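Morning, I've got a small favour to ask if you have a moment. I owe you a coffee for this, so here goes:
>
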Amino acid sequence: MSIRSTDPRFSPPSPAIEKRIEAIIARLSLEEKIDLLGGHEHQGSTKGNVRAGIPEIKMADGPVGVHWFCKTSTAYPASITNAATWDPELIHRLGQALGRDGRARGVHILLAPGVNHYRSPLCGRNFEYLGEDPYLASQIVAAYVKGVQSQGVSTTVKHYAVNYQEYDRHNVSSDVDERTLHEIYLPAFKAAIEAGSGCIMTAYNLVNAVHCSEHDYLNNKVLKGEWGFDGVVMSDWVSTYSEVGAANGGLDLEMPTAKWLNREKLLPAVKAGKVKESVIDDKIRRILRLAICFGWLDNRQEDPSIPMDDRVTGQVALDVARSGIVVLKNEGGILPLDRSAMRRVAVVGPNAHPAVIGGGGSAYTQPTHAVSVLEGVKAFVTERVEVVHAVGPVVSRDRRAFERSEFRTERNEPGVTAEYFNNDTLSGEPAVTRVEERPNHWWGSRQLEGITVQHFSARWKGVITPPRDGTYVFYASGGDGGYRVRLDGHLMFDTWDAEKSGTLEAEMHLTGGAPLVLAIEYRKTRHWAHMHFGWENKDDIAKEIDEALAAVAGADAAIVCAGFDQHTEGEGWDRTFAMQRDVDRFVAEVARRNANTVVVLTGGGNMDMSGWVDAVKGVVHAWYPGQEGGTAVAEVLFGGVNPSGRLPITLEARLEDRSSHGCYHDSDNDKHVRLTDGVFTGYRHHDKTGVAPRFPFGFGLSYTTFAYSGLKLSAERLKAGDTLRVSFEVKNTGTRAGADVAQVYVSDTKSTLPRPPKELKGFAKVFLQPGEKKRVTVDLAQAAFACYDPQKHGWVVEPGEFGILVGRSSADILLRAAVTVGAGAGAPAKKGPAKARRAGGKSGRKAGRKGRKQR
């Protein structure tokens, strides 16, 4: 059973299609046109027009699984794992699988892929993106887009643009210079558009003080002008902030509903001449062009022959996990673990079981099934090895406390007394008063019954009684709002005027049986509201840790599964660099008690390893490995799979070593973050400053060895338009079959503009049998030598000598050569407008012969 490679319905834009579009537009009144510019009240679809023959168009998240319009779906590894594979062919298969899942559910548009730049490990959505390098991200996203769209499903590349943090994302402006914008933050979007993405989604944040959904420069001048995009520009959910600004600023579709692009607001604007009707027509034209080119007006989208629980796509999820797992440390060759020499192995840690498959938020996909690391290890070693398990400290113990904590009302009834107000100041009489089991709420954007305002406030009152003497830990978390927590009048938490992301903790010694009065106040200030509070005895934490430490004693090896999960890393908040405190200490203590400790990390990026990395023998980064992740991790640990994943990010030793350390959060609360690191992000920063990372970009270990030799360049000098062919030999010098990622970097040895010491411009994943040797070729077009000149507002190639560097990571350069680019050489000339929606099929290939028309 194989994935169908193309959808025969594809038709590239043509005079006949444009004529059909104009005929439909002519039948629509202005009011009907405006109605089509906002989503349906049912989340995830556009409005249709039965009279004009326009159907509703269904959308679904997301980048790691099509999980709307169904209860479960194939849950793929996190998108950063895609980049860690360094394998565009495999990611094309992933795209096909996602498109297939979409067709099984009747989905027209996939709200993916995400390509925002990895600036810091703190970003809660790093797992949805493709790492820190624009070239690598561009190659991966192009393959993803073509794969999805080959199945008749449009992609939506997001979040456009410079959306690199989650905290206060609706209000903070990313202030970036023109060169940095074009060299670092836009290339992956451009690659997705050139690959044919039918849609693009604007970001929540502002760029240079203008919201992305109404950004004339980004949407009209660059996207629709310079890049020639003729697809649909849609807003992220509730990320539209005006009617005239959005309409004239290039937004075509407001999602999930039309708060601004509606009759009430747009009709007066059109009649007053603030928005031209031709601007409205262009938006309708784009929506219709998307639907007609994909065949949605004429064909049923749902394919009932595809099963909802699809073994074909499940296999792809497993293959991506296998290819993207990165082995970071293998001291003494402890990996692969030799099960024939083992009697007992301990699998411990909070992420060992149940399975941790993905980060949180809109990307989280409820899997058809999920294999944990514990289950994967048991299946791989079978009955030959005894596998013992204990959880130890819990990553999301705050969440567990939120769900388990007990409260009493002032009348000694179970629960707390809750009061809700139709204002954000707790003023007047409450609109709603009721008894709730506990203050543990995720409202999102939902309107509460009895509350008529968007920004409400709430108060909870109750009593807690500690069962025994001891130190207790208290947790509080409030989203898109401020809160205050008092215990017996003592102010324990206060974010009322200075909102803070994530969970806050406090400790207090309490006397058993002595009741304490609890008061919590919350006010919603933005969109995705939530408030949680809980508590637990610190001795209970210690007991769980002691049980897990006992399990590792006497084991031949200890596998510690740690990191983050969907509750500690996800959309809407930024995470910490360090793991949860008790988890970090637990890893170090396991290493102290068992000399053969291997750590398996789960998360969307880097995390602080300083407390234990030197004490353990093995470190494996599994990212978020999806529903089949436990199988893939076990295969890597025990040698069923030779690891071939390579880092798509730099893993710095300390958070302050990152280029974004001083320009990430809005620390002065002026709603601006100035990206002062410019083009020197990621490995570019480390190369420039000489600060050594813990593990460099492109790094990853294998269970075999490789040798590089015979570097050849097709020319010593290039003219304008020439392509340089770089070739070299890679040999597997070990005893196991395996794959290496050969990386080609370019260095501008002398430039009038400050340039990074080297930049990735090509790579190849090479699969080799023991002793096998292959000559690898990588072509470097003129764009590989170009940089963006802000004075000329365009790409330029300065004449002179460029270094060609070949290596196994950004810090492991093995071969060097030089080429001279002659005067007159320049970046590729701009081509004609890109016509959307033809990735795959005959129509796609025909369009490809017309330059950028291929999608």
Observations:
- Confidence is low (pLDDT under 50) at residues 828-855.
- The chain has four domains: 15-294, 311-388+581-689, 398-539, 706-821.
- The longest strand covers residues 738-748.
- The first helix runs from residue 15 to 26.
